[in-house]
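Page 42, continued from yesterday. The earlier attempt failed because a stray header line got pasted into the input along with the sequence. Redoing it now with the clean sequence only.
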Amino acid sequence: MSSSVQNTIPQLNLGNTFGALFIGVILAAVLFGLTNVQAFIYFQAHRSPGISFFKLVVIWLWICDALHLALTIHSVYYYLVTNYANFGVLTEIVWSLKLQLAINIFIIPMVHLLYVHRIWSVSKGRSRILPAIALGIVVVLSSGVAIPLVWAQYKTKLFKDLIGIVWAAYLSLGAATFVDVVIASSLCYLLATSRTGFSSTDSFITKLVGYTISTGCLTSICSMSIIITCAVMPTNFIFISLQFLVTKLYVNSFIALLNARYYMQANATVDSHERHGVYRPELHVSASQDEEFQKSQKDPEDEVLHITQPIQAAMP
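This time it went through. Structure tokens are written below.
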């Protein structure tokens, strides 16, 4: 056994290094299970024959997510089972760990572009400046940050060399967090300006805005947690285990957005059933008042349907 490996053994804490990777893989598998549930709900809610664009998107995201999980499982199995107690191998970065990072960097910009497509759909009938700006930010930051990070990771052979490329991780995760904020802000702005004054429509929009903010915060918090743990604890692998999870959160958040209409319709159905037994006093109006009310309500209903068309387009 070489002297360099002997010097590494006393400093190696399996609990916060490969133990953290093991826990990260378990949590990633749990999130992949949620991905399966989200995909199942989507295809159950969209049983129409034929292949649509978003059906292909869900299938592609599921394949990428499954491939990412398989690579993380292989990397942990390689260290903890195949090379058990082989401390010389434990200092090296296996190929599957490098490749899963490349898949991670591929999935996140792809999900960002899909969100930009949602912004484009919501802004139908309005100025397309905002989605164009969001698209430019996503393309520039994704291509400008992802390529250097993948290249720097590819050239890294040992775990101790990761400290030298933390700048790439900070840049990539910081850019992803910034893009999350831009996308969430754009969607919230477009949805908030679509309010009609009708309680049912405004309630629907409020729920959608809250969901958009919560999903954007979830992915941003995970990205910021990776940056903080990498900066505070660069000698352990807790930040790598968190990186296993961020991809799953992006995939789950987007498929859940596609399922948002299903969830809201289910809640609306429950609310309507709960209101069946409620006493409603009969309202007595004259014939002239009733005709006037129906006439006043005719055009606003058409207007609500017209205004909410781009909002419904956000959830195919």
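Notes: The two ends are 60 Å apart (CA to CA).
Reminder to self: strip header lines before submitting.
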